[in-house]
Design the sequence.
């Protein structure tokens, strides 16, 4: 299915860009009997897409998909915005978010673990360096990961990257101020 997804992404990207957005990810998800073509978008300037953006893109993509008919099975189209847990899919995504807190899952054990949460130190065309807090020591370690070792990655949306406070802590502070 990945070859078909590449073709679908290519076919849809021009239309999405014409609507002042860009594709972040295209995925075909099977949940029981339901199949969903999930298209994730953001604004051209990197901000999250609005509900209206998603609706406009969804209508346009629905027509385009009916014309090119790339999927023989029945499916639903879902267009969504990136939100605070924006996935990191391409090497350019990783490069753009250097210095941010991210969560990375690997296909196989790397340094004894498969899930890493830390600061994205650097990104190249081949892979990333992630700085993470060690569980048993009072410090940080770095791990180098090649893109083909990464099963998924996303921005850690619970952290405010400027202050280091969790969003939950910030909401609690705002509630106390408002009381």
Sequence:
């Amino acid at each position: 299915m990945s070859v078909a997804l590449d073709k679908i992404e290519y076919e849809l990207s021009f239309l999405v860009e014409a609507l002042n957005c860009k594709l972040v990810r295209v995925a075909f998800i099977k949940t029981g009997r339901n199949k969903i073509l999930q298209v994730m978008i953001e604004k051209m300037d990197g901000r999250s897409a609005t509900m209206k953006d998603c609706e406009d893109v969804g209508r346009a993509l629905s027509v385009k998909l009916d014309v090119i008919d790339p999927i023989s099975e029945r499916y639903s189209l879902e267009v969504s915005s990136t939100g605070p847990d924006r996935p990191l899919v391409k090497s350019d995504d990783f490069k753009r978010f250097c210095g941010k807190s991210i969560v990375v899952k690997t296909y196989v054990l790397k340094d004894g673990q498969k899930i890493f949460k830390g600061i994205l130190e650097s990104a190249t065309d081949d892979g990333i360096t992630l700085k993470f807090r060690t569980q048993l020591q009072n410090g940080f370690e770095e791990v180098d990961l090649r893109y083909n070792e990464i099963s998924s990655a996303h921005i850690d949306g619970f952290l405010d990257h400027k202050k280091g406070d969790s969003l939950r802590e910030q909401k609690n502070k705002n509630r106390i101020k408002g009381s």
